[in-house]
Fold these 2 entries.
Entry 1:
Amino acid sequence: MEIKEIQSQFKVCKETSLYHRYITNTHIEPLLEKLSSKMEIKVIGTSVLNQPIHSIKIGQGDKKVLMWSQMHGNESTTTKAIFDLLNTLTANKTASKSILEHCTLYIIPILNPDGAKAYTRINANKVDLNRDAQALSQPESKVLRAVFNEFKPHFCLNLHGQRTIFSAGETNNIATVSFLSPAQDKACTITANRKVAMEVIAEMNSTLQYVIPNQVGVYDDAFNINCVGDTFQSENVPTILFEAGHFKDDYGREVTREYIYMSLWSALKYIANNDVSGAKYEPYLNIPENGKCFLDVIIRNASIKGKITDVGFLFKETLINNKIEFIPKVERLGNLNNLFGHKEIDAKKESVLCGDGLELEIGSENVCVSINNAKIALFQNKSHE
């Protein structure tokens, strides 16, 4: 399928009721109800706070693909893309035919519903579920492990979101989407199993280069057996980490969701229509490793306490009245020539203060700053519809 066809398909099938960053069980349960006549929907367990963990099963094929989203509750972009994908699978029977005939998909749309509701990475017991793969100390971890054991997937898609700091290599190219074929041993051996995952990632990268050239990265593959991806990979199930990242001015991640959708569609079509042996893994090795070259805002040439310096801000994502607000917070003071800002302001050696007139310091939270007594807003929500 041509790129333009996939983009057109996305526009038709995008689940418009899911929008911006705050996605919880309350948002997806009406959608699951509507989908229940077209696919198998179940409650497969409960969270620490007794919230249901839902599953979706669709397809009749021999190739079994397990995917889960919002293991970290505040990483919701991939959940939106899942429902965009499900709409496509049910609405566009012709395009979806090979996927549904050759694959069986088992999807957990929100693994950590308590974290999703509180908009936190961790669960209600303050545990990072992606470091609980061996201890299995949390009910949500046990649910995922039970599904893995029972479903016996041939592929695992571990769906996450990443911060705005990441670059594709040590460059000024944003890592809008990142992937990883996790290591399965301390030596980070490129095993036959990892090659299979790498081949699928190479296919997704090939698709994405048409729409976001030079904005795809891979994570460092340092091995940690406590991580779910490393554990499943070490048990010889090809596992792929997805990371939904930033696109210019897209703090609601509405543009990025389309690229995740395109990635999922590309991966599933490739798995459905090919015998993925790992023989075509080498292009994966050419994808640049993620750097950390970005801040949300950099004010350059600022006069702070009589010295000329740069000021770097990161946005603190804060849940206020069931909406995510972005609060600029001073992260760095000093020479930031080695970093890039998603937004940059040249203070031209003028005095820069907090919006309330106080001195800027590390940790200061500022909706706006004052440059030579003129107030300037640091965040403007330009998220794409």
Entry 2:
Amino acid sequence: MSSHSVKPFQMPKAPKGFEHIKRFWDPTHQVVTAKILPGECYVSGGTEMISTVLGSCISACVRDPIARVGGMNHFMLPLQSGATGISRTAAMDPALCYGNWAMEYLVNEILKLGGRKDRLEVKVFGGGRVLAGMTNIDVGKQNIDFITQYIASEGLRLKAQDVGDIYPRKVLYFPETGNVKMKKLKTERAPEVSKQEKKYLDSMAKPTSTDIELF
């Protein structure tokens, strides 16, 4: 009886500029997965999945369906005060916590991989009111207002959205196909998510160097 050796799984190289993003093999979906946190972004032209958990934050899933390249960001606040132009070039830049930087960076990275702006389609998630009681500002609504205005002003095509309400959300995005799996998490998880977001908001205040498949 002959024995067959099984080659160990080798993680494919991350796209240039996104080497810092945590990636792992997801046995449930049988796919390499990039997990992004607030202030992070990931773009891929391959068969990968991008995942994140949102409270008041917003994630925009942007894709060129012809080039079959796309990505997802995760921003915490709509605008950086005093921002006058978009010039950020690093995926690790803390300014990606702000919607204006995060959207421009995501779109530009997709264009670098062969996407065209006139073909881009967008799916938007998050903006839940999960920080109630921890701040008197409805951060989620501000984020929703920003992304709505941004999509309209840039002439992008909104394919799907699930925003607002009081629930945290888990989002799984497949940029090659544009498919999304989204789960509204139980309200019991809201305090946990809001605590993490409030901690992140506090750290930011300090100076530093169409097809949604429910599952």
